[in-house]
Structures are given as structure tokens and as C-alpha cells.
Amino acid sequence: MNKSIFKSIVFTILFSLSGNLFSQFVENKGQVLDKNENFVSDVNFYYELENTALYFHNNKIVYSFIELDPIDEKMYADNRELLDSLKRSRGATQYRMDMEFVGSNENIEIIKGEKIVGDIHFYLNKRNGIRDVGSYESITYKNIYDNIDVIFYQNSKGLKYDFILNEGANIDDIKINYNGATNVSLEEGKVIIETLYKTLEEEIPLSYIDGDSKMKLMYFIN
């Protein structure tokens, strides 16, 4: 490639994760707990959807899927109070998949995007007293590989992330492992990532140079 035009190339990828379109990237200031209510310090941000949460570590994204035990609501159509009680107390099964950035750099800087108005305060259990937690429209992993950044954000179709290749970058450095997926396949221009609970669809990335959307092309990553 002509280095005179290699300023930055962006590969845009969309994950089809339906849910609340007002989800946001929330900073972890100690409010993230594991199932034993111990603090999880290596989570930098998290992003929640209906029955799904994403936890952003330095070199991986942990997907946590929750499958609630089914309830036949028709059986309790005449007893709303009992139905609500059953919903609050029913069990659930948790599934996990790690999206790992194989061979990524250490000590990655995560840059916050535009701050969303308002802060979150916690007053329950061990999180009591954690105040002024900010949430953001996007987060960027700076230099996750040499001269390569990745930014996560949301649009009306779902959660998206862009790999930004700056001058000197080598696209072959980008390697993603879906640890915990039951199957990963390429079907009709999409990467299909199957888990025990949910199937994710990742669109084959489009690329363009310095924001020029007219220079799109399809690029397949092995």
C-alpha cells in the first residue's frame, strides 16, 4: 500500500446484540462483584443488555449470558402478585464466553468517549458508598496492537467496534479467539458465533481510509 495515503484505515464490525438502545459503558469503581460478592478489580468497564452483560478487561471482553428458568405465566394469570413473586425468586443459568485479543500489548490505555449526563451511585451490600460512577457513549482501547486501536460504541442496529489501523500497523497482528463458543462459522457474509445460550452475528468488516466511506471494501479475517 502507498504509505503516502496510509494515515488510518478503519475496519467496522457490527455485533447483533438486541436490547436496550440506551445501554452505556459504565466505569468500574469497585461496584462489579463476582457471584461470591468479591470485588472484580480487573474489569475496567461494563455494558449491560437484557440478560446479557459485557465486561471489558485489558485484553479481552467477557460475555455473560443469563438464561432465566421458564415460568408458565398463563397458570398465574389470575394471581399477578404470585407471578411477580415467582419472577423475582426464580433461578437462572449463567453462560460465559471470552472474546480474547490474542497477542495484544500489555498496559493498554482505555480512553473514555463522551460522558453521558448524570452519575450512578450505589447503596447496596458491599457496594454501599460507591458514588459518582460515570458512564460513556464509547470506549477506545489505545494501541491494543502496535499502531492499532479498537473503539466500542453502539448504534441503532447493535453494538459495534472499529479497528483503527494507523501508519505502520500490520492487520495480521489482529487475532481474536472466542473462548467458550460452541462453534464459529462463516455464513452468507457473516461470522456466526454460537454459544450454549445465544448466537451472535458479526458482520464481515467494511474498511475505509480516513473516514471516507466511499472507499469501502470487504475484507475477510481468518
Question: What does this molecule look like?
Answer:
The protein has one domain (3-218). The longest helix has 10 residues, at 80-89. The strands form four sheets. The chain has a seven-stranded antiparallel sheet, with no helix packed on it. Helix content is 5%, strand content 49%. The relative contact order is 0.22. It has one helix at residues 80-89; strands at 8-15, 25-27, 45-49, 52-56, 60-68, 92-101, 109-112, 120-122, 130-133, 135-136, 138-145, 148-155, 158-166, 176-179, 183-187, 190-194, 199-203, 206-209, 212-218. The chain is mainly beta and 222 residues long. The protein contains one helix and 19 strands.
Please state how the strands of the largest beta sheet are arranged side by side: 7-11-12-13-1-18-19
Helix content range = under 10%
Tally of DSSP β-strands: 19
Shape estimate: globular
